[in-house]
Amino acid sequence: MKTILTGNHAVAYAVKLSRVKVVSAYPITPQTTIVEKIAEMIAKGEMDAEFVNVESEHSALSVVYGSALAGLRSFTATSSHGLLYMYEMCWWVSNSRLPLVMAVVTRTIGPPWNIHTDHTDLMTLRDSGWIIAMAENAQEALDLTIQSFKISESLNLPFAVGLDAFVVSHTAEVVDVPDQETVDEFLPERKQAYRVDPNDVFAVGNIADNLETMRIRREMALDMEKAKGVIDEVGREFGEIFGRRYGLVEEYMVDDAEYIVVMTGAWSGDAKEAVDILRERGIQIGLLKLRYIRPFPREVIERLDDRKILVVDRSFSMGHRGTLGIEVGNVVDCKNVVAGLCGVDVGFEDFKEMFERFVRGELGEVEWWI
Question: Rounded to an integer, what distance in angstroms lies between the CA atom of residue 321 and that of residue 331?
């Protein structure tokens, strides 16, 4: 069924279709309408799940940590300061190897007070053991959320689905919403390596030998690499059933491109328009959209070593480069532009000028687009 949905409501419908059993969240703009919609569906009897109201984001993730341990498919959502407040629990969830899904509506971290998008909050999860995906639009928000449960449960690693504040979260678009029977075919009942049973002697998060703790981290790292194959397989299966193929990246006019732009998130759509304009002028330029930040698609980027590469970042690590600039720059030589922080609007005209300067060799190693 095709209908008009905001990105946030697309996530909510995906949670319902995925037959999630426990949802807990604390309201924070611009995430709130995700869980408001879920709460409404539960109250109307349209969704068979428990919604747990809590006093903070830390408590919200703590609740679904417990329900995930008990073997129930669980979900939460947050933004910005809410994610920072629950950050401690993010590590408990991942190090406990729990399958769990969280939507992060990306929002600037203050002060000054700001509710608009940049990617700094989502990027704080990079080293915590969470799989991290970023949706370009409402359709991807729905599709990635459905896939996230299957991927998370296949690997026993938590999964964060990112979507840009307001640009995706509150913008209404035509979305193809699949029927329940088809989603059930794609996403069977939850699988988990272990679960807490009150009748069994079992401990999670207790004190462990130092070497055992290091082994856990190594196993997580190995499984994060393994996730690349799982993501590709799940994306292929999703494409066969729903007609929309997914993977670690989306390549837009990359095959014959001499110049490659690397970026993630909603503004990739505007960047594609700029690529189209420059292509019409005979400039061989393409776009590599990172659909996943973790696992990082290193092998894909390595294949671009003979091209000229520009990374456009919506986050900055307080080092010399933007966050993605560091990641990509560890693999290949690249230029880096930091833009759109704190909700500053960057449209296709900006990208057109930026890409033209890149092609003409006028960009420095790192530039701030202000």
Answer: 14
Distance (Å, rounded) from C-alpha 325 to C-alpha 309?
A: 10
- E-only strand ranges, 42-143: 50-53, 74-78, 101-106, 131-134
pLDDT tens, position by position, 129-157: 999 999 999 999 999 999 999 999 999 99
Task: Over range 115-124, report the average pLDDT.
Answer: 97
- Write down the residue that tokens 């996730």 correspond to: 227
What lies within 8 Å, CB to CB, of 274 at 6+ separation is 348, 349, 351, 352, 354, 355
- Preceding omega of 295 cis (within 30 degrees of 0): yes
Give the CATH class of 249-369.
alpha beta
Domains 2-242 and 249-369 share a fold: yes
Q: What is the pTM assigned to this prediction?
A: 0.96
Residues 161-171: what's their mean pLDDT?
98
- 273-281: average pLDDT: 97
Q: Regarding beta strands 101-106 and 159-164, do their DSSP bridges make them parallel or antiparallel, or are they unpaired?
A: parallel
**pLDDT tens readout for residues 72-116:** 999 999 999 999 999 999 999 999 999 999 999 999 999 999 999
Kindly tell me if the per-residue pLDDT of 164 is higher than 90: yes
Domains of the chain by residue range: 2-242, 249-369
Q: What is the DSSP string of 24-58?
A: EE---TTTHHHHHHHHHHHHTTSS--EEEE-SSHH
Give the CATH architecture of domain 2-242: 3-Layer(aba) Sandwich (3.40)
Is residue 343 exposed (0-12), middle (13-18) or buried (19+ Cβ within 10 Å)? middle
Rounded CA separation 217/231 (Å): 21
